[in-house]
Amino acid sequence: MIRKIPYHLGIILDGNRRWAKAKGLPSLEGHRQGLEKVKKIVGWCLDRGIKILTLFLFSTENWSRPKREINYLMWLAKVAINDDLEELNKKEIKVRVIGQKERLPRSLWSVIDKAENLTKNNQKMTLNFAMSYGGRTEITQAIKNIVRKKIPPEKINEEVVKENLWTSDVDLVIRTGKEQRISNFLIWQAAYSELYFCPKYWPDFTEKDLDQALLDYNQRQRRFGK
Predict the structure, then answer these.
(1) Which one is catalytic: 47, 62, 113, 204?
(2) Is residue 62 annotated as part of the catalytic site, yes or no?
(3) φ, ψ for residue 194, nearest 5 deg
């Protein structure tokens, strides 16, 4: 029985291209199927009472991929936010995009602004889409914000840094796709996170797999060095 639910769950959605390759399909089809699973995971997490869900959709390193693939991923993101916005708002989900928004296509900016403004007061769950996101980039931006605010060095502590990050500490990080690393995802926030690696590719991830990860989380003792 699952008694302890992570307040903040982060998921590294890995394996879309390898899933497609294994099935003899174009890599873009893997991304399309991955998006369908994103729609499902939001509902599963909402049902389980998770308050913050951060999905790693597109990293700062992903800009090195072929332009055709990048364009398709950006189009998918635009369609997903647009098409599901009404439903997300109805379910009282706050939508946020974290990362280098300025690097995203201009066609996405208005969609993101609309989604964030429409849902900003929703409190049932916060859904963070990490796009053009990198943990090191986030920390670098936090440092720039602190310098810009002219905060004296002697007043800079961990709380000040946290206040300038894009999101809060994460309790559990799930990664699909066989790899066992966090790949620059929430590296400040994951300092004391529990890590769970699912060997399935992201499009094959199921509700049962989510529950298995949560059950594993329940069985761990989080001492935080105490």
Answers:
(1) 62
(2) yes
(3) -85, 140
